[in-house]
Write a structure and sequence with these properties.
The complex is a heterodimer of chains A (181) and B (496). By secondary structure, chain A is an alpha/beta fold. Chain A folds into 2 domains: 31 residues; 147 residues, Rossmann fold (3-Layer(aba) Sandwich). In chain A, 36% of the residues lie in helices and 24% in strands. In chain A, strands 3-4-2-5-6-7-8-10 form an 8-stranded mixed beta sheet, sandwiched between helices. Classes of the chains: A alpha/beta (181), B alpha+beta (496). Chains A and B meet through helix 3 and helix 6 of A and helix 1 of B.
């Protein structure tokens, strides 16, 4: 206070400098774009979730993007990467019937109206549903992206996951912003 | 006093005790040291494995958080380590090597950069650990942990103190046991040594040492006892034979003195008893010659003269025997004798009583000897009389007496120009009743030189003679020098 009272101009300069530095810092911290982060999360989810249905040896893990693809080309980086010993494969089904081969289903924006139908269909086939639609987990989805300020977080609906027969690593649950049990 | 601190003066039991104690101290020291080293290793290994387990758990827990770059979650996970006080610093790095989260203990130090491999393991006062965080075999980050070792150090110090206290306790116990057990060895030796000491001091050969066991000490004890037994037997034998010898000597001595007394009594009584009838023969012979001279013819007178001459000779013989027996048994009175003066007196008597042959006698002046004056007078009277007698048929008589002093003896030589004697019979010269001349040539009893020999022998000297052909005879009397030793020897002889 004494400093502020004595030299208000100096204090202001300091404040500005701090502000500048902090924004710069965050800019440096989130060098990656929002969808790069989300794509990385998507990959990480596949590593921490276990499908109880036994898959035959060497089977691929298919990630399907249903509806509008918000990722641009970022998701292509995942193509060919390996998670839990299974190579990743991208797929873009056009209709609900085509998603049977998928293990992960990213529900794009614009599918909010059929959300219950999609999640039920997917969970019946042990498909992990992920979406950035707000309140996705409340609508019955399993993992939903949430933006908290600049930081990307996620929520988990454990009940839906259990219904779908998916096992979620407890470490993942700890990291979730909210878990519906 | 300082000598008693030297090793060689230490008693055997102290040496044995010291030996045992030093060996056990060394052993205990080695055991304690190795225990401490082993304990240090074990504790380090335990610490390493504990920290390893902690690191494993934490890496497993933080793998997901690292994946999602959730530093808040990592911090939460790491905060559980706050309970472990010894942990100085924990750093979690993401896959690209940037610090995700850090936990600092007392001191604040920035997390080390992973560009260079940090020193891991036990370095200085810290234990450092760097472990990769993996998920499905993929490295998703690094886990770095640094722990202080004060607990380890404290534990080891406590261990050292306890183990060395126990070691000292064991050592005290060992000293106690050793001080008891060393007696097994030292006591027989000490007893042996004491027994040997007592035997040498008291000459008591009946002492025996107790024998313990069949080992070398037992053998030593039995051998010692046997040795002392042998010595005891031999000592007894020696003492017995000494007693026997003394008894024999005493017997012989008494026998000898009895014989001597008998002999002396015999010669004394012979001399005395013979003198009486002889005097009667002589007396009546004289009476016969004086009173009945007319009734005897020339033949009778001749016989009578022969009888009287024989009685005179016999009287001389008896006198000689008496003198001989006297010089043999008479006690000696030893004193310094002026031999020259004595010889001069004897010579004067001779010149007064006998023939008129012109005589030239030289006596070396101031000859001194040590001995009994009366005996020496008898001896030298005999020698001078002999010289006088055997020169009586010369036209001129020459007698020379001289002395030759040597280191421890004095030799007196009496030289005459008389008839001398045949050196063939020199051995018989000093034997009683042996004569080298007939009575017709020279009168004599054959006892004179025997008496001289006896007197000189009693003075621990010797007498000998030589006679070069046609140049008279020379008699040598060798007497011990008048020294203190000889004098005391003679004195002893005299008091016997």
């Amino acid at each position: 206070m004494h400093v502020a009272g004595g030299c208000p101009q100096l204090f202001l300069k300091f404040l500005i400098a701090m502000l500048l530095w902090s924004t710069l810092g965050t800019a440096y911290g989130s060098v990656r774009s929002e969808y790069e982060v989300k794509a990385a999360f998507l990959y990480n989810f596949t590593r921490l979730i276990t499908w109880s249905e036994p898959s035959e040896e060497g089977a691929r893990l298919t990630i399907c993007v249903f509806g509008r693809d918000p990722f641009g080309g970022v998701l292509q980086n995942l193509n060919g990467r390996v998670s839990q010993g299974r190579a990743l494969e991208l797929n873009y089904p056009a209709s609900l019937e085509e998603i049977d081969r998928c293990q992960v289903l990213f529900v794009g924006a614009g599918k909010d109206r059929d959300l219950a139908e999609i999640t039920d269909y997917a969970h019946a086939r042990q498909i992990l549903t992920i979406s950035e639609i707000p309140d996705f987990v409340d609508e019955g989805g399993i993992i939903g992206y949430v933006k908290e300020g600049n930081v990307i977080r996620f929520e988990i609906n454990l009940l839906s996951a259990q219904q779908a027969g998916l096992q979620i690593n407890s470490r993942l649950l700890e990291l979730a912003l909210r878990v519906i049990r | 006093m300082s000598n008693h601190w030297r090793w060689q003066y230490w008693p055997l039991r102290t040496k044995l005790l010291l030996l045992t104690v030093s060996i056990s101290t060394l052993g205990i020291l080695l055991v304690c040291t190795s225990l401490v080293v082993v304990e240090n290793r074990t504790y380090e290994a335990q610490l390493e494995s504990e920290l390893g387990v902690i690191a494993d758990i934490l890496t497993e827990q933080s793998a997901a958080a690292l994946l999602f770059e959730d530093s808040q979650q990592v911090k939460t996970i790491l905060s559980s380590l706050n309970q472990i006080e010894t942990i100085e610093q924990v750093c979690v790095y993401n896959v690209s090597g940037d610090v995700m989260s850090a936990l600092n203990g007392t001191g604040y130090e920035p997390c080390p950069s992973l560009d260079v491999d940090p020193a891991v393991g036990f370095v200085g006062d810290y234990y450092r650990l760097l472990e990769p965080v993996t998920l499905d075999g993929d490295i998703v980050g690094q886990f770095y942990l640094m722990s202080r070792l004060e607990v380890l150090r404290e534990h080891i110090w406590t261990f050292i103190v306890i183990s060395f206290s126990v070691g000292v306790g064991i050592l005290v116990l060992l000293i106690w046991v050793a001080s008891r057990l060393q007696r097994l060895i030292s006591e027989p030796i000490v007893e042996l040594s004491n027994a040997a000491d007592r035997i040498s001091n008291e000459h008591d050969y009946s002492i025996r040492v107790p024998v313990y066991g069949k080992d070398e000490l037992g053998i030593l004890g039995s051998a010692f006892n046997e040795m002392i037994g042998t010595i005891q037997q031999q000592n007894q034998k020696i003492l017995q034979s000494k007693n026997d010898l003394e008894r024999t000597v005493a017997e012989r001595t008494s026998e000898l003195s009895l014989a001597n007394r008998e002999l002396e009594a015999f010669s004394f009584s012979v001399s005395h008893d013979l003198r009486q009838p002889l005097r009667a023969v002589e007396g009546f012979g004289q009476a016969l010659e004086e009173d009945c001279r007319d009734q005897l013819d020339d033949t009778g007178l001749d016989y009578l003269a022969r009888i009287r001459a024989a009685t005179v000779r016999m009287g001389g013989l008896i006198d000689g025997m008496l003198v001989l027996s006297r010089v043999s048994r008479q006690a000696m009175e030893v004193e310094r004798v002026d031999l020259s003066a004595m010889l001069a007196e004897i010579l004067e008597e001779l010149q007064d009583t006998t023939d008129t042959v012109p005589s030239e006698v030289t006596i070396q002046p101031d000859m001194q000897v040590v001995g009994d004056e009366r005996m020496l007078r008898i001896a030298f009277q005999n020698l001078l009389e002999n010289a006088w007698k055997y020169t009586s048929k010369n036209e001129k008589r020459a007698i020379d007496v001289s002395a030759c002093e040597e280191h421890n003896s004095i030799t007196i030589a009496l030289k005459d120009n008389g008839v001398g004697f045949d050196m063939k019979y020199v051995d018989k010269l000093f034997v009683a009743f042996n004569r080298l001349h007939t009575p017709a040539q020279f009168s004599g009893t054959g006892l004179g030189l025997a008496t001289v020999d006896r007197v000189v022998r009693r003075h621990f000297g010797r007498v000998f003679a030589e006679s070069p052909i046609d140049s008279g005879a020379c008699f040598y009397v060798e007497l011990p020098r008048p020294e203190r030793g000889a004098e005391s020897g003679l004195q002893q002889q005299a008091t016997r």
